[in-house]
Amino acid sequence: MTERLVVAGVTTRALALSASRAGYQVTAVDAFGDLDLRGAAEVLTLRQDSARRYSPSAAAAAAASVPADLAAYTSNFENYPDAVARLSRGRTLLGNPPAVLRRVRDPIELMRALRRRGFPTPNTRASCPSDGGAWLVKPRRSGGGHNIVPWRGGRSVPRTRYLQERIAGRPGSIVFAADGRNAVLLGLTRQLVGDARFGSTGFRYCGSLLASEEVALFPDQDRLLGTAAALAEAVTMEFGLVGLNGLDFIAREGVPYPVEVNPRFSASMELIERAHGLSMFRLHERACRGTLPVAPGPVRRAFGKAIVFARRNVTLADTGRWLASTWVADVPHPRERIGRGHPVCTVFEEAGDAAACYRGLIRRADQVYHAAESRARGAA
Question: In whole angstroms, what is the distance from residue 196 CA to residue 318 CA?
């Protein structure tokens, strides 16, 4: 009998499609309800620009009436444990439970735990330092690099934010599966952050490149991989993580300085699915039930994705044609209005090396901008 699953989050397309391909009957609750999601799942959309606005609590409430045996979540539910509790009421939760989220999403507790285990970490604190230095002010309910700004000395830190030492280096992410005690490293990705070629600014996440031993994305990558696997094991044992998880880091001289843990399905994971032909949702479900996968083999090519953000206000044309493309996802609705700085879609690329993959993503983004902005001439 087909198992029924409800998935909730800001954007659910990648996880919902993975679950659908694995044979689950999926209902998705998110803020976009994109066209390609509707081809694989029943969709409840809580749009940001409507009276029925998205929030984790609103999404959990909307999901309450969905007939489903299983529940899973994507960003930004990890910051709202009470919403996770409501989403999973009367269902089997495939993901980290509220008690785990409360601990692992506390940035100060996370860094203290990793330091106790001997890992180098950025200084992280709730109050202003007395010795100056380079710091970032981050929201405690963080996600996607939103609302991260450099700290200006002397300014107080609100209770909803914290300070983290600014580490110079390349941003990346560790993808791993966990069973509450042990972890298996599934991939290492380099993050694209604040890249103007994709309409992004500041510290905003806008894509990922998938790495392996043979397609290096970081200096001293062999050393980095060894520490990455140890970090995944450490946070799993310390916090009891289950299912698919991500750990963001800054790489400097072969050392991954952990930034935060994303204890749920994250944006870079669909690259692993594309590269290896795996069902990431199936891996997630089995890990949550206590069965870890075998680590996948090396990726011999580079795989990338980029989120294309609108550079101006646009009104799109017939986006239904985009569904035939293998390199576009998160397809918006025909004649949809998208404001400057908001996501238009996601693009993918595959190439022999990282540099060629990145150039290909830029070309894909340019194609999206040409289609969107040529239609938008004269728009607000």
Answer: 26
